[in-house]
From TrEMBL:
GO cellular component, one term: cell outer membrane
UniProt-annotated location(s): Cell outer membrane; Cell surface
Protein family: Belongs to the autotransporter-2 (AT-2) (TC 1.B.40) family.
Gene source species: Bordetella genomosp. 12
Domain Trimeric autotransporter adhesin YadA-like C-terminal membrane anchor: residue ranges: 124-184
Gene3D superfamilies in UniProt: 1.20.5.170, GSPII I/J protein-like (3.30.1300.30)
A Pfam short name: YadA_stalk
Protein name, per record: Trimeric autotransporter adhesin YadA-like C-terminal membrane anchor domain-containing protein
Signal sequence, renumbered to the chain: none
SUPFAM superfamilies for this protein: Adhesin YadA, collagen-binding domain, Pili subunits
Principal subcellular localization: membrane
UniProt entry tagged with the keyword Secreted: no
């Protein structure tokens, strides 16, 4: 048959369709199969793949009848709105773990420093004119310990006081201080 008019294409139509209508349908099917139209599109074989670029909605749900699905072969995210991969999250987890360990070490050293300062503060000193004193004291703070050794002296006329100390902590750090005072 030739010169057949275009038939009505609908759910209830009983019209015949012509070659032009079939060609249009085939072209549309090929466009969808090639990924140039429809929900998932790719304009060139090495171009970006887009999903639902011409529709609304803010969530893509890929779960099926068996439950959630995994996406595999995903590249590491680079842009702020890219998804992160397990590899990137594992790297971040390692960095957080390293930072946590470093913070713990700094906290322990700070606690040991406080313990050493408490030990130095606990050192008694000479107070009688012409006398000297060698002293030792210990301190503790948040599970860390400190030890101080001090030497002090008062001048014969009682006007000058000189003292110094050395400290160490449970973290192996050392410190010290010296001081001089004049009283009247």
């Amino acid at each position: 048959m030739t010169n057949v008019a275009a038939g009505v294409v609908s759910a209830t139509s009983t019209d015949a369709v012509n070659g032009s209508q079939l060609h249009g349908t085939n072209e549309l099917i090929n466009t969808v199969i090639e990924g140039k139209a429809g929900l998932v599109q790719q304009q060139t074989s090495d171009g970006d793949v887009t999903v639902a670029k011409n529709s609304g909605g803010t969530t893509v749900n890929v779960s099926g009848t068996s439950g959630d699905r995994r996406l595999s072969g995903v590249a590491d995210g680079r842009a702020p709105n890219d998804a992160a991969t397990v590899n990137q999250l594992a790297g971040l987890s390692n960095q957080v773990g390293n930072l946590d360990g470093r913070i713990n070490r700094v906290e322990n050293r700070a606690n040991a420093g406080v313990a050493s300062a408490l030990a130095a503060a606990g050192l008694p000193q000479a107070y009688l004119p012409g006398k000297s004193m060698l002293s030792m004291a210990g301190g503790s703070w948040n599970g860390e310990t400190g030890l101080a050794l001090g030497l002090s002296a008062v001048s014969d006329n009682g006007s000058w006081v000189v003292k110094g100390n050395a400290t160490t902590s449970s973290r192996g750090d050392f410190g010290g201080s010296v001081g001089v005072g004049y009283q009247w």
